[in-house]
Amino acid sequence: MANCGFQATGIDIDSDKVESVKAGISYLSDVRNETLYSAVAEQRLRATQSFASIEFFDAISICVPTPLAKYKHPDLSYLLASVEAVRNHLKSGKLVIVESTIPPGATREIILPILQKAGLAVGRDFFLAYSPKRVNPGNKYLAPRSIPKIIGGMTSRCTTIAANLYRQFLERIILVSSVESAEMVKLLENTFRMINIG
Question: Which residues does 160 contact at the CB level (< 8 Å), separation at least 6?
Fold first, then answer.
């Protein structure tokens, strides 16, 4: 997003990661230091631990781990904490996109009720979509911006607004009929990859 001219901000509770980004030093193997440093130096990318900065954003993307818990069910604690933090600073007109891997139905049944506690109506006052993070591990020739992006909104207006954002920095957008459809795409993709790797 920063490379396409957006002002992007990363929020993380891990101070080491925040300081690493601020210094232009990547802690991710697929992000080169030069790329990160350039975006930070040109003030297109910044990092903070403050969730209060959400109030200044037009769009909020939630992309946190959902690891398997003790009994092999997804641990949604990081996601729920993030959604609560967003809810605490949610204002009218904001777009919220969940990119974390979640079970089908979670956006509508778990995430939406939390966000609605801000007293705003989805599809009118704020916009909610699910668009799973998609990567192709081990493929050095497929740039992240060329991986097709799946988008399903809580309402048709939510889908349109999320698609309008992603179209500005990704090459291919695929709209699906609902958040549940987008969630199922991610589940099937992960299952396909797991079976093939196994």
Answer: 153
